[in-house]
Fold each of these.
Amino acid sequence: MTPGMASIPTGVLTEDDSIDQFETSLPNNHEQITPPKPTREYKITLVWRNIILFSYLHLAALYGAYLALTSAKLLTNIWAVLLFFANGLGVTAGAHRLWTHRSYKAKWPLRVILIIFNSIAFQNHVYEWARDHRVHHKYSETNADPHNAKRGFFFSHMGWLFCRKHPDVIEKGKEIDLSDLEQDPIVAFQKKYYSIMMPLFCFIIPAVVPVYFWGESWLNAWCIPALFRYTLYLHATWLVNSAAHMWGDKPYDKYINPCENKAVAFACLGEGWHNYHHVFPWDYKTAELGDYMLNPSTAFIDFFAKIGWAYDLKTPSAEMIKKRVNRTGDGSHPVWGWDDKDIPKQDIDTAVVINKKGD
């Protein structure tokens, strides 16, 4: 049981009944998929509109960072930090853990909060984000992976947004099952009205609030809580695709690219435990332990589980993790209690679904 979770009621889910079900039902377990064969010649085609827009964005964000240190009001900087966390949770707890991996379920008030937070993030609407991420897991480090890390750090970090998608990405993306998202009215609403929701929540409200509530200048309001905050979290997300696929230990599976990277986990609100995540993509923590300091997204989900808005939180048993570590790990996994006789056997031998309840 992870720190901070002791008071959350649990329901036992036996290993034999659950793990095959989770790993085969979710369309993002790359280990079971044969990488697609090259089907056509591919030539990189640059998207100059994106290159120009990202150039402006980064120049304005750098200027925003300067203004934050020299002329901005304290409340403006605090507002930017709050938006950064809301922005991040919309991606981590929302688009990633809830809608892509279905690692937990959420009642409609929490889904509304997360869809607004996700609109603040402006990383495309949830439907498209989840489709690309499911393709990434299913065909990781192949031409069908939108940000294939084997094409280098820059490409996997942000270069993939500067060029047309490889044809395999488009072809395999059409085969991904998205029926669960199509049946979610909140996801459908965001998809339909994204051209209104995104600019409103990502740029207009972040800039207008400081001007009208505490007299900030329009320049500071536009460059700091709007552009600098947005750009900073883009890079935090991109580090998961780049750095966390290149540098770090592989305690769970040494045969795949994703690594455990604490720096990325800190930057991206808990998404840097990437070797674990690609082995157990259906764990709502995206990490073995519930360390709230390096995984605030887990703390956010646990809080809403305690008030009943989040439920069916999926996580593997310690015994299951131990077996995988011993079978495919690189030997870097720390021993944290597997042989501790004071831990009740049932806490080790079962996979659990936390805060189990119906809709």
Amino acid sequence: MYSGIVAMALVALSVVVLLYALHRTAVITADPLTVLPAQSGWMPQEHALSRFHARWYLASIVFLAFDVE
């Protein structure tokens, strides 16, 4: 009765695992000079996902509130 749902879940899970494995092998074998983000040839000084200061959260919420209008 639930064999179709289980089969689709297994297919989806296997696709996710396959894509994850392909990504991991591509990252390991990639040349660092071609995969690093470039800023006019400078090496990045901080991580791209670094934390923002708390004061910007309020500014962004106010911006979104007025942007919806």
Amino acid sequence: MYASKFLPLTRERRRGRYISPHGSKTWEYLSIFACTLLILSLGIVLGWNSPMVVLLSSPDSPIHDNKLDISTLTALLSTGQMLAPVINVLVTDKIGRKYTILLCSLPLVASWSIILMTKSAYMWYVARFLSGISVGVGFVVAPIYLGEISSVKTRGANGTMISIMCNIGILVSFIIVPYYSIRNTTASFIFLSICFVFLFSFIPESPYYLAMRGRMEEAEETLQKLRGRIDVSDELTKIDQFIKKEENNKIRFWSTLKDIFTIRRHRRAFFIIFLLTFNNFFSSYLPLIFYGQLIFKEILSTVSDYTINIVAGITLLLSSIVTGCFVDRLGRKLIILVSGIIVGICDLTISSYFYAKDFFNIDVSSYFLIPIIASISSIFFCNLGFCSILSIMMSEVFAAEVKVLSTCILGIIGGILAMINDQLYILLAISLNYGHGLPFFGFCLLVWLSTALLYHFSLETKGKTFIEIQRELQD
């Protein structure tokens, strides 16, 4: 047997560590839960912005410093994300996926500690920058790790756990940040991050990474643990063959960079993930999450903006669960197409409402439910078709030799797009007094264009192995 040259299995049989010949997914699910506990913490970071924007703009602001700028505080989170990909390139293939994920919790704990201990605007800028580093590292390395430990049949559903846990974190922020003191909420967020570090320390490394480093015995042991059975020779053989093939093609930085844009399968994978990233940051998703409470205050007169913000958070969570249920049934392409069309319609509806209100001075107060329903629907389908699918496909379409560098470049691009969106939205809607109509109309056009391109260039990855996906990308 192939596996026997790596590890004598008879000893493991005598110990009875793996009883069922059909295997068990206990360790796979434990690993997924532990990894996505970090994503929960990062979701809290993202959701923290919306209620804090309203609080910091009020007379009861905890920071009485005229140097505090809301859009800068938001944009620095995205700036930190731009630095994170460099860290990913330097450490992910050197110290491993597990220890890179553990490493990214350090700036997160540091950022909450700064917010806990100081009320200086400049120090809060530093804190948000540090948390941006954690967001950038976590949302890139976690999908890689989950994609490499997941079995083929569960990879799509497991990938959606990133979105589910992120949205639980956002909802937690929406609920507790406005009603509890900064000291209490921040202390609880620090405690959650420490719990993650403790739990994830016991989780196994990615078998793909171990195979890449030539540690085949450890890779086999890890696969046995994750699959809950002794015989993992077929999967280990595929991993070993895949890694050897990629190692033969592995080259230096500039050559790898060249390959991303000159080899068809790498170029196509890069373009697919770029379009999904673009849709994430240039649809209405980001403003509705970061500035949702501010936007809802301009729409509502009879319902609390806090209440609608919580409804938005629940909507995010529900959409992630729906993705988990249907992504391996309906497939990625259909979900992307339907979501893109509906999001564009919702953005156009919101834009029309604000244009009628701000430029034509029409009394639209009695129609407030229309933009609210459109906003909630936009959040639902943005998360369903773009955010959740992005985390899944990022782990599916990149070949091993270009995965880290590709995600690094896309992470930097994503940070730039998010920073542009953060600053441009406030500039157009508030500073230049164009209102919310113009940005949402732009989102409508951009989403429809990018969705059309996505549907044309992307491929269906449902139920396919890495090798089959790479073969299709090359066709």
Amino acid sequence: MLLIENPSTDPAYNHALEEYLLKNLQEDVVMVWQNVPTILIGRNQDALCEYDADYVREKGIRVVRRLSGGGAIYCDLRNLQYSLIAPFWSGGGEDENPFLKFASPVVGALKRLGIDAEFTGRNDITVEGKKVSGNAQFRYGDRVLHHGTLLFDVDREAISRALRPNPVKFVNKQVRSVASRIGTLAPYVRMDVRDFMEYLKEQLMGHYGVRETCAVHQEDLREVLRIKRERFDSPAWNFGIRYRFTHRYDVRHPFGMIGYRLEVGRSLIEHAEILGDFFGDRDVFELAGRLKGCAIERESLRRGLEGVRVDDYIRGMENEVLIQDVLAVQATDAA
């Protein structure tokens, strides 16, 4: 495994570098890095519904869509990101959380500082019940990019005002905002964020037996900058194309928020999008395409999904659950 030294704080460059390393480097990779104030949008989310555009514009906060699924997060130079790139690992059993293997070394590093950290839920690290880290993954072939944020310190005003999550996310939950459920690591340690970054690097290097560190080579930089320009600097990627839909329906499942956007004409689905903070190993655009031409009727939807395993696109979802959700869309008012 290699430790990649990455001093950049440009979120578009940093995510382009992750993509390049995932798709082109054969060695396993660990990287610890930072972003300037940024809203990172999950791959499958409707970007403009996830943040306050006026506040973000006023404060000069960047908005970048990442490769991985999951929800929108705020990060800045008070916090840090880490990336691990390795062969895909689905766990020791059918129900094993695929995030656990990669998050465990980070939990261990916190515990060695005397912090009572634990991995909880589908993708979080918590301390005393407060979230200090969210993790996400993107699979490419037989390899996976696992990355996460560690909230060393936090600008609570920025998080509260910049992020605007769907209210459905908090249905039946005691917390009513993102800021109210997060914690920070700074109160538990006698170091600043830069020292903590160096500590985490050392811990991850020790865990993975890293013997070599390297910077991005000049011959690789040209390709990283191309990915940055064509994807992570692109409004089409970061914000997507917005359609007018006749029907919309948002629902929270244990595996994530799902938003359905349907254009229905002549009793058939003419266009569909599936949005949300879920995870999956295949592009959900393909799954949404299977709904095109279907009637909002159980047997028609079953035929449209024939040969499809929905869990490949939305991890944790069974085909019949998707069908039931689409049937529920019919009961909603036109958008």
